[in-house]
Design a protein that fits this description.
three-stranded mixed sheet, 188 residues, 6 helices, single chain
């Protein structure tokens, strides 16, 4: 393997070997406790073409994201001001449809999350939601409000989300694909 690649082997009671890319030049191997170094090396060699292909994709995406211009403080303030006007009415509307209550609403310029819900029902939203399609913003609002019914990501939680947003999987994917470009511009 390339010297620049960071390889992490995690042993557990599993029966098979598995590999996943966890970041730029970062690979995680999940292995049975009984797997030898030789077996792990053979597994990596057998999957080298898959690994090379997907590492190239991840590394190229990381390069693209790191070259995006950072938001200015003025742009962030303007987005936060817009979010304070746009998001609370959506929270109110969807809370009525879900029959849930909520506490304080806070708008933040978060570098990793789109929203969160505390155990007290306080809601936080990323000001970058103002740059997302309205259906995606609604998905995040619905997602956080559904935590007022289920403080987890169980099948019951996702069933609640799906009741108000049947296309939630597409909205999650948009955040993963396109939203990551927005988030990348916060971290500079």
């Amino acid at each position: 393997m390339d010297k620049a690649i960071q390889l992490q082997v995690i042993r557990s009671n599993r029966k098979t070997l598995a590999m996943r890319i966890t970041g730029p030049n970062q690979v995680e191997i999940r292995a049975p406790r009984s797997a030898t170094k030789s077996q792990i090396d053979d597994f990596i060699r057998q999957h080298q073409s898959w690994l090379d292909k997907h590492l190239a994709i991840v590394n190229q995406r990381e390069e693209e994201l790191s070259s995006l211009p950072a938001f200015t403080a003025q742009e962030i303030r303007a987005l936060a001001d817009r979010a304070l006007q746009a998001i609370p009415p959506r929270v109110y509307q969807f809370s009525k449809l879900l029959s849930v209550t909520y506490g304080r609403i806070t708008i933040r310029n978060q570098k990793s999350k789109w929203g969160s819900c505390s155990s007290q029902g306080n809601l936080n939203f990323n000001c970058l939601l103002m740059l997302c399609p309205s259906a995606v913003m609604d998905y995040v609002v619905i997602h956080e409000l559904c935590h007022r019914k289920e403080m987890n990501h169980s099948p019951r939680f996702w069933a609640e989300v799906e009741k108000l947003d049947p296309d939630y999987k597409a909205h999650r994917q948009w955040l993963k694909d396109e939203g990551s470009k927005l988030i990348a511009r916060m971290g500079k």
